[in-house]
Amino acid sequence: MENPLHHFEVHNIIPIHIGGLDLSISNAVIAMWVGLALVGSMFVLPSKRGLSLVPGKLQSVLEIAMEFIRNMVYEFIGEEEGKKYIPFIASLFLFILACNLIGMVPGSYTITCQIVVTGVFAIGIFIMTLVIGFSKHGLHFLGILIPPGIPKVLIPLMIPIEIISMIARPVSLSVRLFANMTAGHTILAVLFGLAGASLMIGWLPFGFTIAINGLEIAIAFIQAYIFTILTCVYIGDVIHLH
Amino acid sequence: MPQFQQIAVFQPLIFWSVLSFAILFFILKKFAFPPILSALDERDKKIRGDIEESEKLKQDVEEIKLSLEKKLKAAHEKAETIVQLAQDESKKLQEKTVQEAEAKVKQVQREAEQEIESSRNKLLQEIRGYTAALTIASAEKFLKKSLGDGDKKRLADESIEQVSRELKI
Questions:
Q1: Would you call A86 and B37 a contact, using CB atoms and an 8 Å cutoff?
Q2: pLDDT band at residue A23 under the 50/70/90 scheme
């Protein structure tokens, strides 16, 4: 039986080395580009063609997606402050969703299975929240480390705990996405391996793969949603400071 | 797990994913999101405006309905009053006409009665005159002699009474 983790391997297709940097284009990058191109054209083309007041099918989908994201941003960041974050949050959601979904196509690659990718995004968001917090509140932003209403005696204890919980945020954010996508694809790979192993009962694991494929599509949406909603929560936290 | 072992691919993966996200972000921010969001806002505004307008129209209709109902009620009342007045008037007129007719009838009757009475009296008077003359003349003939004034009178009265009795039958 094939190693179920085999398909997580990245193969360089076009090696590019500039200076000391390795910028090789791999199968993962190409799959991501295909997904992004699909999502990007889905959003850009109707918008370029002009939107009508009475929406068609595609326009309805785009509007529902944007309304969903806008409401999410308004709920966690606030209507006043949230407006300028809508493009970022929407792009983040669509990026993760496109990467998750394109990975469902057999033979492609799910770049969100790579912890370095989810890690970079999570750390980037973490740094962004710190920048927003300090630029908005100055040194008062450090007050986020002291939960409101705790006795003064406990402050020395709470500050390290809060620091740890702050640092845990990007870790959990990146690991959650990476682990979910990896687990789903691993299960699919294992079941497909079993389906091919025996002709007599191979139909059973194959049947499971069909159900799990549906589940994986749902997970692709849910994980993109969770990643973005937590981003909103973190941004909302540093803006409103308790 | 390859994700932890293929350290060599980390650098290009990070580079391309961040770059791709940045490009996607700028393209969508520039070309896709503003028109979609403004379309949403526009529709929102239009729906809100339409609802407000329809709400206003509804209120107007309600007001018009109320005023029309009021007018209708007033018109009904007026019509009823007019009908009542007309009925009263006609009743009065009817009564007056009847009274007048009755009075006239009574007057005519009275006049007729008076006329009859006077005619009768006149007639009686005439008859009385004739009878007196006749009685005297016939008595004179029968008796072949003149009567005294007293006898004449008594005879005349008797004749008159007799004639009157016969006439009154």
A1: yes
A2: confident
